[in-house]
Amino acid sequence: MGFFGLALFLLLAFDSDQGSPSSASAFTSPSAQDVEVTYGTVLKLMHEKTKVRLHSHDVPYGTGSGQQSVTGFPNVDDSNSYWVVRPTPDTSAKQGDTIPNGAIIRLQHMRTRKWLHSHLHASPISGNLEVSCFGGESESDTGDYWRLIIEGSGKTWKQDQRIRLQHLDTGGYLHSHNKKYTRIAGGQQEVCGLREKRADNVWLAAEGVYLPITEST
């Protein structure tokens, strides 16, 4: 399925409890500039250094938590790399709102509906903090909370900005490297949490359905 067809499919499949956007969504590619990432956006996150996409699939880790595994996927065209940007349930933020620097967000895996999660279990390859997918529509906790850190002077998250995601509970930064799995996800990279702020824990918003900003009434 081509990108625009997939984008339309994702938009139509989006949660009805989040409402529908008041105007057409922006179907964008990684070259788009000044496109706001809003709550409700469905996107892929690309690791800046290695160019893999943040990815998950219904395959559990064989060690650590045994929860659904999260990896870095080398190919662009895979629907298991789409994530929905959500606010935390204790805020008034809603679909279409812009996301300021420092906001606490959640990322929901589009296909399995589980949340990007981390904890103190050791990651399988490097022994850093394990990053998994956990929970579901009605099951989420602070292990799913990530602080958005925009590199540079940006005040709200835009597609062409370099970002970091810092896990609220552990302090670890969402990270990847070129060490690859040979068994659970052959050829895919490890994604983990790293407490050290480094050049290789920077990510970029890539392919996705970018919902327009909701106008205040």
Give unreliable regions as ranges. Answer: 1-31
Q: In total, how many beta strands?
A: 13
Shape: globular
Q: Structural class of the helices, strands and pairings?
A: mainly beta
Domain MIR: 34-88, 96-151, 154-208
Protein name: MIR domain-containing protein
Organism: Hibiscus sabdariffa (roselle)
Signal peptide: 1-19
Offer a concise description of the structure:
Residues 1-19 form the signal peptide. Pfam families: MIR. This protein is mainly β and 217 residues long.
Describe this structure in words.
By secondary structure, this protein is mainly beta. Helices cover 5% and strands 37% of the residues. The protein has one helix at residues 3-13, and strands at 26-28, 42-47, 53-60, 68-73, 83-87, 104-109, 115-122, 129-134, 146-150, 162-167, 173-180, 189-194, 203-210. A 6-stranded antiparallel beta barrel has the order 2-5-6-9-10-13. The longest helix has 11 residues, at 3-13. The radius of gyration is 16 Å and the shape is globular. The chain starts with a helix and ends in a 7-residue tail after the last strand. Mean pLDDT is 86; it is low at 1-31.
Task: Looking at this protein, list some descriptive labels.
217 residues; six-stranded antiparallel β-barrel; six-stranded antiparallel beta sheet; 1 helix
Topology:
Blueprint: H1 3-13, E1 26-28, E2 42-47, E3 53-60, E4 68-73, E5 83-87, E6 104-109, E7 115-122, E8 129-134, E9 146-150, E10 162-167, E11 173-180, E12 189-194, E13 203-210
Antiparallel strand pairs: 1-13, 2-5, 2-13, 3-4, 4-8, 4-12, 5-6, 6-9, 7-8, 8-12, 9-10, 10-13, 11-12
